[in-house]
Amino acid sequence: MLVFYLAALDSDDNKNKFETIYRKYYRFMLHTAAGIIKNPTLAEDAVHETFVQLLREIDTLRIDNERALKSYLYIVTRERSIDFLRKWERRGTRPDYESLAAALDHYVEPEEVALTNLQLDRAIALLEEMPLIYRQTLVLRVKGYSICEIAKITDSSEPNVRTRIHRARAMLLKSFAEQAE
Fold first, then answer.
1. Which of 13, 5, 48 is CA-nearest to residue 30?
2. For residue 173, which of 121, 122, 116, 114 has the smallest C-alpha distance?
3. Which residues contact 162 (CB under 8 A, 6 or more apart)?
4. C-beta atoms surrounding 56 within 10 Å
5. What is the residue-wise DSSP string for 19-52?
6. Would you tell me which of 29, 33, 61, 163 could form a disulfide with 43, CB atoms 3.0–4.6 Å apart?
């Protein structure tokens, strides 16, 4: 999330100031919000709203006095968390934490999606370079076929299929390790 916050700022001084606040006080702010909201996932939302407010006020924030800054962050986070709860109360109900948490469990950060897509593209390219017999065996296994079914499809023995799968995975892992270096 820090990347998105920093993208909203123009000057390098403000970016450095905001990054310092984020890295140093994020856990403190999350702990403060969680103490009020009693749900870690919703507490993150309240902290996000707090950071959005801090983006608007970044020019006036001073980070040279840690005690004053920490007190200010505590107050702002507490207010945002209380406002967050009030929004739910105005709707007539308190949030159903279990259903919200279940829905948010499937949420994936955009950075993770991009990284996963890059890794997927890399894996597909590596699969295309792999010898056909290994590629075919591994693809069938990934699609959910059993070792016995793959042996029948490829007209091979089950131990041979296991060996091919093991070698294909080893090739992929080796290629990923080489590309990471």
1. 48
2. 122
3. 147
4. 9
5. HHHHHHHHHHHHHHHHHHHS-HHHHHHHHHHHHH
6. 33
CA angle 52, 57, 73 (to 5 degrees): 70
Angle between helices 40-57 and 97-104 (to 10 degrees): 70
Contact 76, 82 (CB under 8 A): no
pLDDT per residue of the chain (181 residues) written in tens, 0 to 9: 666 667 777 778 888 888 899 999 999 999 999 888 877 878 888 899 898 888 888 888 888 888 888 989 999 999 988 888 787 667 665 555 555 555 545 555 565 655 566 666 777 777 788 888 888 888 888 778 889 999 998 899 999 999 998 888 888 778 777 766 6
CA 113 to chain centroid, in Å, comes to 8
Is residue 74 classed exposed, middle or buried when 0-12, 13-18 and 19+ CB atoms within 10 A define those classes? middle
Select from 76, 19, 69 the least CA-distant residue to 47. 76
pTM of the model: 0.50
Q: Distance (Å, rounded) from C-alpha 97 to C-alpha 75? A: 24
